[in-house]
Amino acid sequence: MILKFFRRMSSVDISALRIKYKQKKDIFHESSIQVKDPLHLFRKWFDEACNTPEIIEPNAMCLATATKDAAPSARFVLLKDVSECGFTFFTNYDSRKAEELAENPKVALAFYWLPLRRSVRIEGTAERISRADSEAYFHQRPRASQIGALASPQSKPIPSRDFLDQKEQQIKSELGPDGVVPLPNWGGYLVRPAAVEFWQGQTDRLHDRIRFRRELRPGEAVDENLLHQGENGWLYERLAP
Asked: Residue 5 and residue 14: Cα distance in Å, rounded?
């Protein structure tokens, strides 16, 4: 009944939408992972995404946060750095996402690179980076983006689009063409990963899923059958699709 309702709501038969993924010759085997560390593998996959012309924004990622009462929200942001410590993005510290991170620092990230039939999911904890690092990055941005960040009270209700345009013009007039844009209540977060899952789609829907995680669960042990010892303190396992 529900499916028929949604079909009536759209001229497209949503239930029939599907594309071809990888073939059997392209199975993602554990043996293909040269360094059993998810940050090393992520950089490899990310570089491939960056070198795939069909992928316009390889650093676009969905960021999911939740309130202290576990009410979730999600939006797309841009990855701006990846290091041995984790993944960094920037935002307004007065935004909804920042308010939720103040209450509950646990987050999830998701990348989806359709032309490669690949996705990466990350679960971890977010923490603010230093003000000095935030300010250094802020002033590397195009000046128009700096002014836009200063003009926008992100996630707060505003009366109209004209409000933003007028605020932008006011800042430009006050600063002049060469004035330094002051850092608003804005900066970066570092997501320290506790789990990273690599997904590669297969046309027969027997998709490949390999998950890295930090901790053993109660009663678990590395048996090199279901659970394997990786590098730099990581464990890894294959999940059923």
From this structure: 11
Give the position of tokens 């804005």.
186
Q: What is the per-residue pLDDT across 152-211, written as a single tens digit (0 to 9) for each?
A: 999 999 999 999 999 999 999 999 999 999 999 999 999 999 999 999 999 999 999 999
Q: Is the dihedral of CA 71, 75, 81, 83 positive or negative?
A: positive
The string of pLDDT tens digits covering residues 67-98 is: 999 999 999 999 999 999 999 999 999 999 99
As a whole number of angstroms, the distance between CA 153 and CA 105 comes to 22
Both tokens of residue 73?
């929200």
Query: Are the beta carbons of 221 and 28 closer than 8 angstroms?
Result: no
CA distance 17 to 14: 5
Give the alpha-carbon dihedral of 82, 137, 50, 204, to 10 degrees: 50
SS3 162: helix
Tokens at 5, concatenated:
């309702």
Nearest to 126 by CA among 199, 193, 195: 193
Of 72, 159, 89, 180, the C-alpha closest to 127 is 89
Within 8 A by CB and 6+ apart from 33, the residues are 41, 210
Q: Which two tokens stand for residue 89?
A: 């993005």
- The verdict on pTM exceeding 0.85 is yes
Active site residues: 205
Single-letter amino acid, residue 113: W
Residue in 1, 76, 84 with CA at minimum distance from that of residue 42: 84
